[in-house]
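1st attempt posting a full record on here, be nice pls
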Amino acid sequence: MTAWQGNRDLEFSRPEAIRAVQERLLGEHLAYAAAHSPFYRELFRERGVQLSGSALETLRGLPFTDKKLLSERNDDFLAVPMSRVVDLSLSSGTTCHPTAVMFTEMDLKRLAYNEEISFAGCGMTRDDVVLLTCTMDRCFIAGLAYFSGVRSLGAAAIRNGLSSFESHWELIRRLKPTVLVGVPSFLLKLARFLESRGIDPASTGVRKAVCIGEPIRDRSLSLLRAGELLAQLWGARVYSTYASTETITSFCECTAQQGGHLHPDLAVVEIVGEDGEPLPDGEAGEVVLTPLAIEGMPLLRFKTGDRGFLVEGPCACGRNSQRLGPILGRTSQMIKFRGTTLYPESIFSVLDSLPAVSEYYVAASSDFHLCDQVRVYVALRDPSLSRENIMDKLQAHLRVRPEVSVVTEEEIRSELKAGTSRKAVRFLDQRGNL
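the predicted structure (as tokens):
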């Protein structure tokens, strides 16, 4: 593969110019995968795939790659000798063994470029000081990605990672970061910690919060309760991101905050229905990504397992690149409750809108196939909101009425084992059929 260079202006080009560049880059990517990836070489040979005509049409005729397949045949996806691999990360897989994702030097340069233009899109500049609250160790790629993007942009990075609230406050006090990068639930806890010390988070000089790992917007692109609280407490603008370890590709909101922009020289995105057929913009389905210009482990039509949708129309920022709306849930977490299909995030959205609810989690169990039982556990900061009130709110939004139990915050935290975790796991899937 020839040395890869990014095209920072491509997103502002006319749609037909963007498509032409994607056709060329995808054609190169397909040819590279067919020649160098043992898995895709075998697949193309067995299916008689011809790399002629439209690359985008050829892509849509190929089968999907998913986490299970990537885990089972992990080594067959490596397209370079191990001597070319400079970083190995681990992604959660469908077996007890995490899936290895291997990067060449060029892959890491591509990763830095991806994050650089994502951060620049939401208004970060080389004058910013960025506090990274995500880890760079334990074979995670996220922390390395954000650090590389900050460096590539020319801003200053503070790599505090998985550290205590006291440690973060000391760095905020001394080094005065203007941007926070982290999981929204952790950034909220950090703000509450400062308040408990008599410190107003909005007085610290933080002006942006780039949120990773958890959604902060709903289906209409409006801020969820967690996003509103973040903006209010820190006095900052909050930006949503979405990323996938396997595809080394991220989507980040621009200053218009109306969906995360795909960088068209980095990936092709599809939204597909349960039948695997592409869906039109605006319709929700599974997010499928084909990352472009990957050397180490090229992938084609990778099913992320996440449900999302493409935002219709051009963006107010002037970019003509596709935009990914908020992630609406995991396909594996689909709940079939009293004849209605729903996802945990739809329940979270209702609970997040209720200021009286301080903590919560949702548990799903099942007695037999496609008949799930759902119970919602909540802790209240305002006892005037009754269990029946909450059930009414859920029914109004979901069209079904799950049972609600009011418990203490301590009981919820004990069940979720929240501790110092940055990302609260609010869905307990206890169904034996999955």
